[in-house]
Amino acid sequence: MKAVILVGGEGTRLRPLTVNAPKPMIPVLNRPFLEHVLDYLRRYGINDVILSMGYRSEVITNHFGDGRDFGVNLLYVHEETPLGTAGAVKNAEQHLDGTCFVFNGDILTSLDLGAMLEFHRQKKSMVTISLVPVEDPTAYGLVELDDDRRVQRFIEKPTWDRVTTNLVNAGTYIVEPEVFRYVPPKLYYMFEHGLFPVLLQTGDPMYGYPSNCYWIDIGTPQKYLGLHRDLLTGRAETVMPGKRLKEGVWVDAECDIDPTAHLVSPVVLGKGVAIGPHSTITGPVVMGDGCRVGRDSVVEDAVIWRETRVGNSVTMKTCVVGEGSQIDDHCWITGGAIIGDHCLVGANNKMEHAIRIWPGKSIGPGTITF
Ligand code: GDD
Ligand code: MG
Predict the structure, then answer these.
(1) Closest protein CA for atom 4 of ligand 1
(2) Class (C level, CATH) for 240-363
(3) Hey, which of 206, 222, 252, 350 has its CA 20 to 30 A from 336?
(4) Which amino acid residue places its CA nearest to atom 2 of ligand 1?
(5) Are 131 and 211 in contact (CB under 8 A)?
Protein backbone atom coordinates (compact mmCIF):
# COMPACT_ATOMS: atom_id res chain seq x y z
CA MET A 1 0.00 0.00 0.00
CA LYS A 2 1.21 3.50 -0.79
CA ALA A 3 1.50 6.39 1.62
CA VAL A 4 1.33 10.11 0.98
CA ILE A 5 3.09 12.32 3.50
CA LEU A 6 2.14 15.99 3.60
CA VAL A 7 5.36 17.94 4.00
CA GLY A 8 4.48 21.22 2.29
CA GLY A 9 3.65 23.43 5.28
CA GLU A 10 5.77 26.42 6.27
CA GLY A 11 6.13 25.41 9.92
CA THR A 12 5.37 28.96 11.04
CA ARG A 13 4.80 28.09 14.71
CA LEU A 14 8.26 26.52 14.84
CA ARG A 15 10.10 29.56 13.54
CA PRO A 16 12.97 30.39 13.70
CA LEU A 17 13.84 26.66 13.64
CA THR A 18 12.07 26.31 10.27
CA VAL A 19 13.57 29.35 8.55
CA ASN A 20 16.40 27.37 6.90
CA ALA A 21 14.89 23.87 6.97
CA PRO A 22 11.29 22.75 6.52
CA LYS A 23 9.65 21.09 9.51
CA PRO A 24 10.32 17.48 8.38
CA MET A 25 14.05 18.22 8.20
CA ILE A 26 14.61 19.60 11.68
CA PRO A 27 16.82 17.23 13.65
CA VAL A 28 15.35 14.83 16.17
CA LEU A 29 18.01 12.85 18.01
CA ASN A 30 20.44 14.35 15.49
CA ARG A 31 18.75 13.20 12.29
CA PRO A 32 15.92 14.71 10.25
CA PHE A 33 12.48 14.15 11.76
CA LEU A 34 11.27 12.62 8.48
CA GLU A 35 13.80 9.78 8.83
CA HIS A 36 12.00 8.71 12.01
CA VAL A 37 8.66 8.79 10.16
CA LEU A 38 10.03 6.69 7.28
CA ASP A 39 11.46 4.18 9.80
CA TYR A 40 7.96 3.85 11.25
CA LEU A 41 6.36 3.29 7.83
CA ARG A 42 8.97 0.70 6.90
CA ARG A 43 8.10 -1.28 10.03
CA TYR A 44 4.63 -1.72 8.50
CA GLY A 45 6.03 -2.72 5.13
CA ILE A 46 5.15 0.64 3.58
CA ASN A 47 7.99 1.31 1.15
CA ASP A 48 6.29 3.34 -1.56
CA VAL A 49 6.02 6.86 -0.29
CA ILE A 50 4.82 9.99 -2.05
CA LEU A 51 6.01 13.24 -0.53
CA SER A 52 3.73 16.18 -1.16
CA MET A 53 6.09 19.13 -1.22
CA GLY A 54 5.92 22.89 -0.91
CA TYR A 55 8.05 25.07 1.37
CA ARG A 56 11.87 24.55 1.05
CA SER A 57 11.36 21.26 -0.77
CA GLU A 58 14.93 21.22 -2.10
CA VAL A 59 16.26 20.59 1.42
CA ILE A 60 14.21 17.38 1.51
CA THR A 61 15.08 16.13 -1.99
CA ASN A 62 18.80 16.86 -1.51
CA HIS A 63 18.87 14.75 1.64
CA PHE A 64 16.64 11.83 0.64
CA GLY A 65 17.18 11.51 -3.12
CA ASP A 66 15.19 8.56 -4.46
CA GLY A 67 14.93 7.14 -0.93
CA ARG A 68 17.12 4.10 -1.64
CA ASP A 69 19.55 4.87 1.23
CA PHE A 70 16.59 4.98 3.58
CA GLY A 71 14.95 1.74 2.47
CA VAL A 72 12.01 3.37 0.64
CA ASN A 73 11.01 4.46 -2.87
CA LEU A 74 10.28 8.14 -2.79
CA LEU A 75 8.21 10.02 -5.32
CA TYR A 76 8.09 13.79 -5.03
CA VAL A 77 5.01 15.76 -6.02
CA HIS A 78 5.47 19.52 -6.06
CA GLU A 79 2.90 22.30 -5.90
CA GLU A 80 3.55 25.81 -7.15
CA THR A 81 1.30 27.42 -4.56
CA PRO A 82 0.07 25.68 -1.40
CA LEU A 83 -2.88 23.45 -2.27
CA GLY A 84 -3.98 22.71 1.29
CA THR A 85 -3.99 19.24 2.80
CA ALA A 86 -6.65 17.62 0.55
CA GLY A 87 -5.64 19.59 -2.56
CA ALA A 88 -2.08 18.35 -2.05
CA VAL A 89 -3.16 14.70 -2.08
CA LYS A 90 -5.48 15.34 -5.06
CA ASN A 91 -2.38 16.67 -6.81
CA ALA A 92 -0.79 13.21 -6.35
CA GLU A 93 -3.97 11.32 -7.36
CA GLN A 94 -2.51 9.92 -10.60
CA HIS A 95 0.14 8.07 -8.56
CA LEU A 96 -2.36 6.37 -6.23
CA ASP A 97 -3.38 2.81 -7.02
CA GLY A 98 -6.07 2.03 -4.45
CA THR A 99 -6.56 2.41 -0.73
CA CYS A 100 -3.73 4.57 0.66
CA PHE A 101 -2.44 6.07 3.87
CA VAL A 102 -2.12 9.82 4.25
CA PHE A 103 0.07 11.28 6.98
CA ASN A 104 0.55 14.79 8.27
CA GLY A 105 4.33 15.13 8.07
CA ASP A 106 4.82 16.48 11.58
CA ILE A 107 3.48 13.57 13.61
CA LEU A 108 5.37 10.87 15.47
CA THR A 109 3.20 8.05 16.72
CA SER A 110 3.15 4.40 17.67
CA LEU A 111 -0.31 3.96 16.08
CA ASP A 112 -0.89 0.36 14.92
CA LEU A 113 -1.41 0.87 11.18
CA GLY A 114 -2.29 -2.79 10.63
CA ALA A 115 -5.13 -2.68 13.15
CA MET A 116 -6.37 0.62 11.71
CA LEU A 117 -6.43 -0.86 8.20
CA GLU A 118 -8.37 -3.87 9.42
CA PHE A 119 -10.92 -1.54 11.05
CA HIS A 120 -11.18 0.51 7.82
CA ARG A 121 -11.91 -2.62 5.77
CA GLN A 122 -14.33 -4.10 8.27
CA LYS A 123 -16.36 -0.86 8.29
CA LYS A 124 -16.14 -0.53 4.48
CA SER A 125 -15.10 3.02 5.20
CA MET A 126 -14.23 5.61 2.53
CA VAL A 127 -12.08 7.66 4.91
CA THR A 128 -10.86 6.51 8.32
CA ILE A 129 -9.30 9.10 10.61
CA SER A 130 -7.00 8.14 13.46
CA LEU A 131 -7.97 9.85 16.70
CA VAL A 132 -6.21 10.39 20.00
CA PRO A 133 -7.39 11.82 23.30
CA VAL A 134 -5.54 15.00 24.36
CA GLU A 135 -5.73 17.27 27.39
CA ASP A 136 -6.01 20.48 25.38
CA PRO A 137 -7.95 19.83 22.17
CA THR A 138 -8.17 23.52 21.18
CA ALA A 139 -5.01 23.28 19.04
CA TYR A 140 -6.41 20.41 16.97
CA GLY A 141 -9.40 19.19 15.01
CA LEU A 142 -12.09 17.64 17.23
CA VAL A 143 -13.98 14.68 15.82
CA GLU A 144 -17.30 13.52 17.27
CA LEU A 145 -18.29 9.88 16.76
CA ASP A 146 -21.44 7.85 17.27
CA ASP A 147 -21.45 4.51 19.11
CA ASP A 148 -20.39 2.70 15.94
CA ARG A 149 -17.45 5.14 15.62
CA ARG A 150 -18.94 6.75 12.52
CA VAL A 151 -17.97 10.42 12.28
CA GLN A 152 -20.77 12.82 13.21
CA ARG A 153 -19.08 16.23 13.30
CA PHE A 154 -15.80 18.11 12.96
CA ILE A 155 -14.83 21.13 14.96
CA GLU A 156 -11.47 22.45 13.82
CA LYS A 157 -9.43 24.24 16.50
CA PRO A 158 -12.34 25.48 18.62
CA THR A 159 -12.27 27.82 21.58
CA TRP A 160 -12.78 26.06 24.93
CA ASP A 161 -16.50 26.88 25.07
CA ARG A 162 -17.03 24.84 21.86
CA VAL A 163 -15.08 21.78 23.03
CA THR A 164 -17.33 18.71 23.11
CA THR A 165 -14.79 15.86 23.12
CA ASN A 166 -11.14 15.25 23.91
CA LEU A 167 -10.72 13.07 20.81
CA VAL A 168 -8.79 14.85 18.08
CA ASN A 169 -7.77 14.16 14.52
CA ALA A 170 -4.31 12.58 14.84
CA GLY A 171 -3.31 13.36 11.25
CA THR A 172 -3.22 9.79 9.88
CA TYR A 173 -5.92 8.81 7.39
CA ILE A 174 -6.79 5.77 5.34
CA VAL A 175 -8.44 6.97 2.17
CA GLU A 176 -10.22 5.40 -0.81
CA PRO A 177 -9.09 7.46 -3.81
CA GLU A 178 -12.70 7.78 -5.09
CA VAL A 179 -13.26 10.54 -2.53
CA PHE A 180 -10.95 12.82 -4.47
CA ARG A 181 -13.75 13.33 -6.99
CA TYR A 182 -15.08 15.84 -4.46
CA VAL A 183 -11.81 17.77 -4.37
CA PRO A 184 -11.33 20.51 -6.98
CA PRO A 185 -8.07 20.13 -8.93
CA LYS A 186 -5.30 22.72 -8.57
CA LEU A 187 -7.19 24.68 -5.94
CA TYR A 188 -6.48 25.22 -2.27
CA TYR A 189 -8.66 22.71 -0.43
CA MET A 190 -8.41 21.21 3.04
CA PHE A 191 -9.44 17.86 4.46
CA GLU A 192 -10.37 19.54 7.72
CA HIS A 193 -12.63 22.35 6.48
CA GLY A 194 -13.44 20.96 3.04
CA LEU A 195 -13.52 17.26 2.22
CA PHE A 196 -14.46 15.87 5.65
CA PRO A 197 -17.53 18.12 6.11
CA VAL A 198 -18.53 17.37 2.48
CA LEU A 199 -18.39 13.62 3.15
CA LEU A 200 -20.75 14.10 6.09
CA GLN A 201 -23.25 15.66 3.67
CA THR A 202 -22.83 13.08 0.89
CA GLY A 203 -23.22 10.26 3.42
CA ASP A 204 -20.06 8.44 2.34
CA PRO A 205 -18.98 6.22 5.25
CA MET A 206 -16.32 7.94 7.32
CA TYR A 207 -15.09 6.49 10.59
CA GLY A 208 -12.83 7.49 13.43
CA TYR A 209 -10.24 5.10 14.83
CA PRO A 210 -9.42 6.13 18.42
CA SER A 211 -6.37 4.71 20.12
CA ASN A 212 -4.18 5.36 23.12
CA CYS A 213 -0.94 5.16 21.15
CA TYR A 214 2.02 7.47 21.70
CA TRP A 215 1.33 10.59 19.64
CA ILE A 216 2.87 14.02 19.20
CA ASP A 217 2.62 16.84 16.67
CA ILE A 218 6.00 18.62 16.68
CA GLY A 219 4.49 21.86 15.42
CA THR A 220 5.69 24.15 18.26
CA PRO A 221 9.05 24.53 20.04
CA GLN A 222 7.46 23.22 23.27
CA LYS A 223 6.32 20.07 21.47
CA TYR A 224 9.69 19.72 19.77
CA LEU A 225 11.42 19.75 23.17
CA GLY A 226 8.65 17.48 24.49
CA LEU A 227 9.35 14.90 21.79
CA HIS A 228 13.02 14.81 22.79
CA ARG A 229 12.07 14.36 26.44
CA ASP A 230 9.76 11.49 25.48
CA LEU A 231 12.33 9.75 23.28
CA LEU A 232 15.12 10.11 25.80
CA THR A 233 13.07 8.91 28.74
CA GLY A 234 11.59 5.99 26.81
CA ARG A 235 8.00 7.29 26.77
CA ALA A 236 8.31 7.11 22.99
CA GLU A 237 10.13 4.19 21.46
CA THR A 238 13.19 4.66 19.27
CA VAL A 239 16.64 3.33 18.58
CA MET A 240 19.20 5.55 20.29
CA PRO A 241 22.05 6.85 18.15
CA GLY A 242 25.72 6.32 19.02
CA LYS A 243 27.25 4.06 21.64
CA ARG A 244 25.91 3.59 25.15
CA LEU A 245 28.55 5.09 27.45
CA LYS A 246 26.60 4.35 30.63
CA GLU A 247 22.95 3.98 31.60
CA GLY A 248 21.03 6.64 29.66
CA VAL A 249 24.07 8.25 28.02
CA TRP A 250 24.73 7.66 24.31
CA VAL A 251 27.73 9.20 22.58
CA ASP A 252 28.95 9.06 19.02
CA ALA A 253 32.56 8.63 17.91
CA GLU A 254 35.41 10.96 18.83
CA CYS A 255 33.73 12.74 21.74
CA ASP A 256 36.05 14.52 24.11
CA ILE A 257 34.54 14.66 27.57
CA ASP A 258 36.75 16.12 30.27
CA PRO A 259 37.12 13.75 33.24
CA THR A 260 35.76 16.43 35.57
CA ALA A 261 32.60 17.00 33.48
CA HIS A 262 29.32 15.37 34.56
CA LEU A 263 26.86 13.72 32.22
CA VAL A 264 23.55 13.05 33.95
CA SER A 265 21.24 10.80 31.93
CA PRO A 266 19.45 10.89 29.57
CA VAL A 267 21.97 12.49 27.23
CA VAL A 268 22.78 12.01 23.53
CA LEU A 269 25.98 13.51 22.12
CA GLY A 270 26.75 13.54 18.40
CA LYS A 271 30.06 12.88 16.74
CA GLY A 272 33.06 14.87 17.97
CA VAL A 273 31.26 16.70 20.81
CA ALA A 274 33.60 18.21 23.42
CA ILE A 275 32.61 19.00 27.01
CA GLY A 276 35.05 21.07 29.07
CA PRO A 277 36.15 20.82 32.71
CA HIS A 278 33.52 21.00 35.47
CA SER A 279 30.62 21.43 33.05
CA THR A 280 27.43 19.54 33.76
CA ILE A 281 25.09 18.18 31.12
CA THR A 282 21.84 17.13 32.75
CA GLY A 283 19.39 15.31 30.51
CA PRO A 284 17.24 15.32 28.67
CA VAL A 285 19.86 16.87 26.42
CA VAL A 286 20.76 16.24 22.79
CA MET A 287 23.80 17.86 21.16
CA GLY A 288 24.57 17.55 17.47
CA ASP A 289 27.87 16.65 15.81
CA GLY A 290 30.78 18.95 16.56
CA CYS A 291 29.18 20.87 19.45
CA ARG A 292 31.57 22.19 22.08
CA VAL A 293 30.89 23.33 25.63
CA GLY A 294 33.57 25.21 27.61
CA ARG A 295 34.29 24.98 31.34
CA ASP A 296 31.91 25.45 34.31
CA SER A 297 28.83 25.53 32.10
CA VAL A 298 25.48 23.91 32.78
CA VAL A 299 23.21 22.52 30.06
CA GLU A 300 19.89 20.97 31.01
CA ASP A 301 16.69 20.03 29.14
CA ALA A 302 18.02 21.36 25.84
CA VAL A 303 18.43 20.47 22.20
CA ILE A 304 21.49 21.97 20.53
CA TRP A 305 22.03 21.47 16.83
CA ARG A 306 25.33 20.62 15.18
CA GLU A 307 28.51 22.70 15.31
CA THR A 308 27.27 25.08 18.00
CA ARG A 309 29.74 26.40 20.54
CA VAL A 310 28.95 27.21 24.13
CA GLY A 311 31.49 29.20 26.17
CA ASN A 312 32.47 29.12 29.85
CA SER A 313 30.10 29.55 32.82
CA VAL A 314 27.05 29.51 30.55
CA THR A 315 23.67 28.32 31.85
CA MET A 316 21.28 26.76 29.36
CA LYS A 317 18.02 25.26 30.46
CA THR A 318 14.88 24.40 28.49
CA CYS A 319 16.01 25.88 25.20
CA VAL A 320 16.80 25.04 21.60
CA VAL A 321 19.80 26.41 19.70
CA GLY A 322 20.16 25.99 15.93
CA GLU A 323 23.27 24.89 14.08
CA GLY A 324 26.58 26.74 13.88
CA SER A 325 25.73 29.25 16.61
CA GLN A 326 27.97 30.59 19.33
CA ILE A 327 26.93 31.38 22.90
CA ASP A 328 29.66 33.27 24.71
CA ASP A 329 30.72 33.21 28.37
CA HIS A 330 28.31 33.88 31.26
CA CYS A 331 25.19 33.81 29.07
CA TRP A 332 21.93 32.63 30.56
CA ILE A 333 19.66 30.97 27.97
CA THR A 334 16.60 29.48 29.66
CA GLY A 335 12.80 29.45 29.87
CA GLY A 336 12.01 28.15 26.40
CA ALA A 337 14.40 30.47 24.53
CA ILE A 338 14.86 29.52 20.87
CA ILE A 339 18.01 30.67 19.06
CA GLY A 340 18.22 30.16 15.30
CA ASP A 341 21.11 28.94 13.15
CA HIS A 342 24.42 30.83 12.89
CA CYS A 343 23.71 33.32 15.66
CA LEU A 344 26.45 34.93 17.70
CA VAL A 345 25.35 35.68 21.24
CA GLY A 346 28.02 37.75 23.00
CA ALA A 347 28.92 37.30 26.66
CA ASN A 348 26.56 38.19 29.51
CA ASN A 349 23.26 38.07 27.66
CA LYS A 350 20.23 36.81 29.53
CA MET A 351 17.42 35.30 27.47
CA GLU A 352 14.34 33.69 28.95
CA HIS A 353 10.55 33.80 28.44
CA ALA A 354 10.50 31.90 25.16
CA ILE A 355 12.44 34.63 23.34
CA ARG A 356 13.07 33.73 19.68
CA ILE A 357 16.20 34.91 17.87
CA TRP A 358 16.18 34.65 14.06
CA PRO A 359 19.07 32.97 12.21
CA GLY A 360 22.25 34.89 11.54
CA LYS A 361 21.75 37.51 14.26
CA SER A 362 24.72 38.90 16.11
CA ILE A 363 24.05 40.14 19.63
CA GLY A 364 26.74 42.19 21.35
CA PRO A 365 27.91 41.43 24.89
CA GLY A 366 25.44 42.34 27.66
CA THR A 367 22.77 43.54 25.21
CA ILE A 368 19.70 41.53 26.15
CA THR A 369 18.03 40.87 29.48
CA PHE A 370 14.65 39.37 28.63
N1 GDD B 1 1.80 19.68 0.51
C2 GDD B 1 1.20 20.46 1.40
N3 GDD B 1 0.50 21.55 0.97
N4 GDD B 1 1.29 20.15 2.71
C5 GDD B 1 0.67 20.96 3.59
C6 GDD B 1 -0.05 22.10 3.22
C7 GDD B 1 -0.14 22.41 1.81
O8 GDD B 1 -0.75 23.39 1.38
N9 GDD B 1 -0.55 22.70 4.33
C10 GDD B 1 -0.15 21.94 5.37
N11 GDD B 1 0.60 20.90 4.94
C12 GDD B 1 1.19 19.83 5.74
C13 GDD B 1 2.10 20.34 6.83
O14 GDD B 1 3.45 20.35 6.36
C15 GDD B 1 1.91 19.30 7.93
O16 GDD B 1 2.77 18.20 7.76
C17 GDD B 1 0.48 18.81 7.72
O18 GDD B 1 0.12 19.20 6.40
C19 GDD B 1 -0.52 19.41 8.73
O20 GDD B 1 -0.38 20.81 8.73
P21 GDD B 1 -0.23 21.61 10.10
O22 GDD B 1 -0.09 23.05 9.74
O23 GDD B 1 0.79 21.00 10.96
O24 GDD B 1 -1.69 21.40 10.71
P25 GDD B 1 -2.10 21.46 12.22
O26 GDD B 1 -1.17 20.71 13.09
O27 GDD B 1 -2.39 22.88 12.59
O28 GDD B 1 -3.53 20.71 12.18
C29 GDD B 1 -3.68 19.47 11.53
O30 GDD B 1 -3.10 18.42 12.27
C31 GDD B 1 -3.70 18.16 13.57
C32 GDD B 1 -2.98 16.98 14.19
O33 GDD B 1 -1.66 17.32 14.45
C34 GDD B 1 -5.18 19.21 11.32
O35 GDD B 1 -5.29 18.07 10.50
C36 GDD B 1 -5.90 18.98 12.65
O37 GDD B 1 -7.24 18.61 12.42
C38 GDD B 1 -5.21 17.84 13.41
O39 GDD B 1 -5.80 17.65 14.69
MG1 MG C 1 0.73 19.99 12.81
Answers:
(1) 8
(2) mainly beta
(3) 252
(4) 8
(5) yes
